[in-house]
Design a protein that fits this description.
single chain
Length: 96
Protein backbone atom coordinates (compact mmCIF):
# COMPACT_ATOMS: atom_id res chain seq x y z
CA UNK A 1 0.00 0.00 0.00
CA UNK A 2 2.84 2.39 0.83
CA UNK A 3 4.42 1.82 -2.59
CA UNK A 4 1.22 2.98 -4.28
CA UNK A 5 1.16 6.11 -2.11
CA UNK A 6 4.83 6.76 -2.94
CA UNK A 7 4.25 6.40 -6.68
CA UNK A 8 1.20 8.68 -6.66
CA UNK A 9 3.10 11.26 -4.59
CA UNK A 10 5.99 10.92 -7.06
CA UNK A 11 3.64 11.57 -9.98
CA UNK A 12 2.48 14.75 -8.29
CA UNK A 13 6.02 15.74 -7.30
CA UNK A 14 7.36 15.17 -10.80
CA UNK A 15 4.63 17.25 -12.39
CA UNK A 16 5.04 19.99 -9.77
CA UNK A 17 8.78 20.11 -10.46
CA UNK A 18 8.13 20.27 -14.20
CA UNK A 19 5.67 23.12 -13.73
CA UNK A 20 7.96 25.04 -11.38
CA UNK A 21 11.12 24.49 -13.43
CA UNK A 22 9.82 25.01 -16.95
CA UNK A 23 13.30 24.99 -18.48
CA UNK A 24 13.90 21.49 -17.02
CA UNK A 25 10.46 20.06 -17.82
CA UNK A 26 10.32 16.75 -19.65
CA UNK A 27 6.77 17.35 -20.87
CA UNK A 28 3.65 16.17 -19.08
CA UNK A 29 4.12 12.49 -19.93
CA UNK A 30 7.85 12.57 -19.17
CA UNK A 31 7.33 14.35 -15.85
CA UNK A 32 4.65 11.84 -14.89
CA UNK A 33 6.66 8.73 -15.73
CA UNK A 34 9.91 9.97 -14.22
CA UNK A 35 8.07 11.32 -11.19
CA UNK A 36 6.43 7.94 -10.57
CA UNK A 37 9.76 6.14 -10.79
CA UNK A 38 11.41 8.73 -8.57
CA UNK A 39 8.54 8.49 -6.12
CA UNK A 40 8.98 4.76 -5.74
CA UNK A 41 12.74 5.05 -5.36
CA UNK A 42 12.54 8.09 -3.08
CA UNK A 43 10.03 6.41 -0.82
CA UNK A 44 12.18 3.30 -0.53
CA UNK A 45 15.27 5.38 0.29
CA UNK A 46 13.32 7.43 2.83
CA UNK A 47 12.15 4.23 4.48
CA UNK A 48 15.70 2.89 4.65
CA UNK A 49 17.09 6.10 6.12
CA UNK A 50 14.38 7.06 8.59
CA UNK A 51 12.64 3.77 9.18
CA UNK A 52 11.33 4.15 12.72
CA UNK A 53 9.54 1.06 13.99
CA UNK A 54 5.80 1.66 13.57
CA UNK A 55 3.23 0.76 16.19
CA UNK A 56 2.33 -2.89 15.48
CA UNK A 57 -1.42 -2.42 16.05
CA UNK A 58 -1.60 0.62 13.80
CA UNK A 59 0.49 -1.06 11.11
CA UNK A 60 -1.71 -4.14 11.19
CA UNK A 61 -4.82 -2.03 10.67
CA UNK A 62 -3.14 -0.07 7.86
CA UNK A 63 -3.70 3.27 9.64
CA UNK A 64 -0.13 4.12 10.59
CA UNK A 65 -0.18 7.87 9.99
CA UNK A 66 3.58 8.20 10.32
CA UNK A 67 4.17 5.65 7.55
CA UNK A 68 1.67 7.38 5.28
CA UNK A 69 3.30 10.78 5.84
CA UNK A 70 6.72 9.26 5.26
CA UNK A 71 5.52 7.64 2.03
CA UNK A 72 4.00 10.89 0.75
CA UNK A 73 7.07 12.96 1.65
CA UNK A 74 9.58 10.47 0.27
CA UNK A 75 7.59 9.87 -2.88
CA UNK A 76 6.95 13.54 -3.61
CA UNK A 77 10.52 14.62 -3.02
CA UNK A 78 11.91 11.62 -4.91
CA UNK A 79 9.68 12.35 -7.90
CA UNK A 80 10.60 16.02 -7.96
CA UNK A 81 14.33 15.39 -7.58
CA UNK A 82 14.53 12.71 -10.27
CA UNK A 83 12.50 14.85 -12.67
CA UNK A 84 14.79 17.83 -12.09
CA UNK A 85 17.94 15.69 -12.46
CA UNK A 86 16.79 14.16 -15.72
CA UNK A 87 15.72 17.61 -16.91
CA UNK A 88 19.27 18.86 -16.33
CA UNK A 89 20.71 15.84 -18.16
CA UNK A 90 18.32 16.38 -21.08
CA UNK A 91 19.22 20.07 -21.24
CA UNK A 92 22.93 19.24 -21.26
CA UNK A 93 22.51 16.67 -24.03
CA UNK A 94 20.51 19.07 -26.20
CA UNK A 95 23.25 21.72 -25.91
CA UNK A 96 25.98 19.24 -26.87
Amino acid sequence: MELIIQIVAGLLGGNAAGAALKNLSLGTAGNTVVGGIGGGLGGILMGMLGGAAPDAAAAASGLDLGAIIQAVAGGGVGGAVLTALLGVVKKMLVKA
